[in-house]
Specification:
CATH topology of the largest domain: Glutaconate Coenzyme A-transferase
Strand content: 15-25%
Strand order of the largest sheet: 1-10-8-6-2-3-4-5
Helix content: 10-25%
Distance between the termini: 68 Å
Number of strands: 23
Structural class: alpha/beta
CATH architecture of the largest domain: 3-Layer(aba) Sandwich
CATH class of the largest domain: Alpha Beta
CATH superfamily of the largest domain: Acetyl-CoA hydrolase/transferase C-terminal domain
Number of helices: 13
Number of domains: 2
Radius of gyration: 22 Å
Length: 424
Amino acid sequence: MKWKTISELDLQLKSGDKVFIHTAAANPQILLKKLCEEVVAKNLSHIQLYHLHLEGEAPHVSPELAGRITTNCFFVGANCRKAVQEGRANYIPIFLSEIPLAIKSGLFAFDLCLLHLSPFDERGMATLGPSVDISLSAAQSSKRVIAQVNKQMPTIFGDGIISETQVDVAVEVDVPLPDSKVAREAGSEIFENIGKNVASLIEEGSTLQMGIGAIPDAVLAQLTSHKNLGIHSEMISDGVIDLVEKGVIDNSKKMIVAGKIVASFAVGSKRLYQFLNGHKLCHFMTSDKVNAPTIIQKNPKVCAINSAIEIDITGQVCADSIGPKIFSGIGGQLDFMRGAALSQGGKPIMALSSRTPKGISKIVASLTPGAGVTTTRAHVHYVVTEYGIAFLYGKNLRERARELIKIAHPDDRENLEKNLMRYP
């Protein structure tokens, strides 16, 4: 491994190269900016970038680089959403559990991998910090690896270990990670009620999976009296910290990496990254392990808590698009919904507000034309809104519709009931 300053660094890009960008909070923003500058300086074209969602800045999707850089998102974050919707970037629908194997198989064949690492220790080992997910497989499979090594990157235990022998060139940096603490959305009473309803389904000794945002935070806030909870989740955020410190989350009933929080990546505030740094309670693994339904199901009472953009009255869930406009991605929703269903005492839960902030019903007679089905009606067992809990498992289409209409916004129920006639 060679050390260079950022001004000395030459990424040695060529037109047509395929480049993987480290994910989420581990976005190597200094190297990504360098890549964009080099593409312009060398007059390169058709550079293909691949990544999950990225926190922080995303200069590679600026309109000025259209034609020079094409971005391919396995999951679409807010900073790439406009580019995808305008056709300047692409979305690849794929299960998060399958991406590492797809990378290892050579399907994407990366020429370069840009990483963001914690400092190397005396053994010459660093970690991928809060993003192991698909990034370890990319690092292991790319022809070249260039890393920014950051004094402020947390060292996190688990699979995400990188040896200096795996890195071709390293650049030392000292920058904070993007602070991604999500503010509670307007209408906090709505989310508080959703949180109470979901919490009523969670038994002591359950293993939880959830994401980031108002609903997961609201659920976690209602669990302070629970006991012996565990975490096995695609991602974790700030909401777990207080429950760990109160002893609510002790991971004592889990079967997979017993006694530890298991995740593949983390997104949150500086407090979260400080909590994770060197914490022996936390164990990060690749997403083919964390998200595999056959592994998830081995934990007891798995409660998979996911959300949706809209759900039709038969239980079909769209979570990645608004009509044909891609909003996010498939990610690990179906992986965990299936894993929870197979778990002893598990509960696959869809939690959402009954309406959007603009007053549009999220429970609909039919999905918006062009919308994709992220989670099928057969995978959905529980649906929760601020108005209650609908249990759909084992029910026929008409029964499912009636259950969902009960938890829709009161002003939307009459219109939804008119569509019951299609299910005689």
